[in-house]
Amino acid sequence: MTFILFVVALAGLLVVMRRESGATPAIGVMVVTGLLSWIFASGWLALILFVGAGITAAAGLPGFRQSWLTPKIFATFKKVAPKVSETEKVALEAGTVGWDGELFTGQPDWHNLLINRHTGLSEDEQAFVDNQCAQAISMCNAWDLAVERADLPKELWDFLKKEKFFGMIIPKEYGGLEFSAKAQTAVLQKLAANEMLMVSVGVPNSLGPGELLVKYGTDEQKSHYLPRLADGREIPCFGLTGPRAGSDATSLPDTGIVCKGEVDGKEVVGIKLNFEKRWITLAPIATVVGLAFRMFDPDGLLGEQKDYGITCALIPRDTDGMEIGRRHCPIGTPFLNGPIKGKDVFIPLDYIIGGQEMAGQGWRMLVECLSVGRCITLPSGAAGAAAYSVGTAGGFTRVRRQFNTPVADMEGVQEPLARIAGKTYIAQAAVNHTANMIDRGEKPA
């Protein structure tokens, strides 16, 4: 019996390696195994395998399989499988699948990967990394930022605004830098020398008002906000995470009820918001707040639809009823973070990002915009920090001596150094490859 199982395993391995398809390999394995079972083991086992081979052969007939078998199996599966909700459907259909889909075939086409070379940065982008980024880092003192000040110095904030660090994703026609994904990655990896600096620059260029306005904003919203976001006159934050739902947008408890209210002495149709957000990066200094909430129209002021679903709006900081609370200090790091809450905050409908027609489209907007935050900002910060850890560890082990010998010359130290360097190389390669994919039109979900 052991010999039979060995043969079955070997045959299965050959089928997988050859990437065979259809019923023929399965029939062959069953028949060969049946013959071996008949000779060396149980006749009943051989009979079962022969019957299985016959059933497999019948199922392998294209006409029988396509016209009867597959529809029957699929119909049965649909009855027992859980239904896919609209929010799940939107998430499943968001974005594109590029070369990364090849990995799931088991036999990726490496040529398609190799021809998509990382073309590097433009002259302006490289100059920005070499000059403005280097100068920004030189203005950071880790002890001062983390312990004495718990904030970036004013002259550094002014420098970041002047050099348009917050406008990397904003088109040049609106005063932004319009950097490629590769350039954004390079900037954030460079700034990762200081976590607070990297986060402060990364968030406005990630998921939030800037990207949502570029992709979905009305012409009026773009003309007003994008130039102000690009030069730092407006500092944005985005309120998604809540105390009960975390960052799960589909479970938002925050609501917006369509009703009538007064704006500048005139009665208009708008939205009354009640919300509570926390862990919102840049909230303490934000001048404009992006907000995700669930929108309802119980009185039918906009039409017959009652539950519009997740909606995104842009709210000025000084709006009546909105309060930005005491600053958080997550895991002891000093980057700016805090809670936002509002009770009966009334906003006009034109505060909805994209206008009234985008009401209820917030989930799709959020899912489609996650690629920058998940594929550029967070990975770039991690890869950049890893690179600095290589430099720190390598430099220290050269300076640190034991028995009149730098510990970097000792095999027990060289091994973890090599591991750190190797994994950092992998991380940076993955980040750069993903940014290259985005620049070539892919939208990783």
Topology:
Layout (H helix, E strand, L loop, with lengths): L1 H17 L5 H17 L2 H17 L2 H19 L5 H8 L16 H5 L8 H16 L3 H8 L4 H9 L18 H11 L3 H8 L6 H8 L2 H12 L5 E4 L15 E9 L2 E16 L6 E9 L10 E10 L5 E3 L12 E12 L13 H38 L1 E2 L2 E2 L4 H29 L6
Helix pairs in contact: 1-2, 2-3, 7-10, 10-11, 10-14, 10-15, 11-14, 14-15
| Count of spatially separate domains | 3
The end-to-end distance, rounded to whole angstroms, is 48 Å
Radius of gyration: 29 Å
Structural class, from helix and strand content? alpha+beta
**Overall 3D form:** flat
Notes on the structure:
- The chain is an alpha+beta fold and 445 residues long.
- It folds into 3 domains: 2-80, no CATH class; 123-230, Acyl-CoA dehydrogenase/oxidase, N-terminal domain (Butyryl-Coa Dehydrogenase, subunit A, domain 1); 236-360, Butyryl-CoA Dehydrogenase, subunit A, domain 2 (Beta Barrel).
- The protein contains 15 helices and 9 strands.
- It has helices at residues 2-18, 24-40, 43-59, 62-80, 86-93, 110-114, 123-138, 142-149, 154-162, 181-191, 195-202, 209-216, 219-230, 362-399, 411-439, and strands at residues 236-239, 255-263, 266-281, 288-296, 307-316, 322-324, 337-348, 401-402, 405-406.
- The strands form 2 sheets. Strands 1, 2, 3, 4, 5, 6 and 7 form a 7-stranded mixed beta sheet that branches. Strands 8-9 form a two-stranded antiparallel sheet.
- It is flat and about 85 Å long.
- It starts with a helix and ends in a 6-residue tail after the last helix.
- Mean pLDDT is 85; it is low at 16-20.
